[in-house]
Amino acid sequence: MSLAIVHHPAFDAQFDAAHRFPMSKFTRLAQILVEDGLADGGFFQPIPAPEHWLELAHAPAYVEAVLTQRVDRATEKAIGFAVDDRVAMRSRCATGGTVLAARLALERGIACNTAGGSHHAAREGGAGFSVFNDVAVAASVMLADGEVGRVLVFDCDVHQGDGTARIFADDRRVFTLSIHGERNYPHPKAVSDLDLGLPDKTGDEDYLAVLPELLATAFDRAHPDIVFYNAGVDPHVDDRLGRLSLTDTGLAERDRRVIGFFRDRDVPVAGVIGGGYSRDIEALSRRHSILHRVAAAFA
Ligand SMILES: [Zn+2]
């Protein structure tokens, strides 16, 4: 079976090319997946997340503020961009995309979004380029609907998944794990169920060496019915924000080991692309496509 890939044209809110958030990567990533034959059956297109989904992980007042474009200045500053109608729609679609990827993963074993991983958004508001926490919303929707009983969030973005950790701090059904650059944003860090902060310039070998024990520990403690895998590519050596030094080969091996571990144990995996920051949109989009290439081998 081919890999189920979720995409929506609205993922790209069409920022100016000079904006420090590389918005056009979502469009280019989808093109690359088509060009390289990874999306031959077409994309699965999500619905924009409805309000009642968003309110499972976010305060109703914040959801309302985003949907009516009345987010306060301080929160917009924490997010890093203004929340206009296009940004609101992209955030709803990306969140709907992660819900859809999760449902497809339950049916097929694995599925990937071409967005998602907005893990800095907390219950009360967004931060760090994250408006809605798509993984937290998707996990909450699946739990509320009884589609799953236990969830593992396995977050390999270079930045700690602080919003996700905070949203689920008191929820024993969701186990949050974050492997990140210790000196990267955010400061201070939140407390996940399992955190590993790595030193600057950690390379492929040392990074991959820590995975087996973390995977085994997370699996034993979480007993997950589904894994949300944040495959952020910002641990890459060329990333503008990340402080780690992984190569493309290292990222691919990371993805293979994480996905392989859970698929070997028959746990469904929903992949989200997470962060990646480069002015070279072509190189960045190709780097994000590593997730889909690796995942396709498990579909
Ligand atoms: Zn990141």
UniProtKB/TrEMBL annotation:
GO terms of biological process kind: epigenetic regulation of gene expression
Signal peptide range: none
Domain Histone deacetylase positions: 19-281
Superkingdom per UniProt: Bacteria
Keywords attached to this entry: Hydrolase
Record GO terms (molecular function): histone deacetylase activity; hydrolase activity
Family annotation (InterPro entries): HDAC_classIV (IPR044150), HDACs (IPR000286), His_deacetylse_dom (IPR023801), His_deacetylse_dom_sf (IPR037138), Ureohydrolase_dom_sf (IPR023696)
Similarity comment: family membership: Belongs to the histone deacetylase family.
PANTHER family in the record: HISTONE DEACETYLASE 12, HISTONE DEACETYLASE HDAC1-RELATED
Protein name: Acetoin utilization deacetylase AcuC-like enzyme
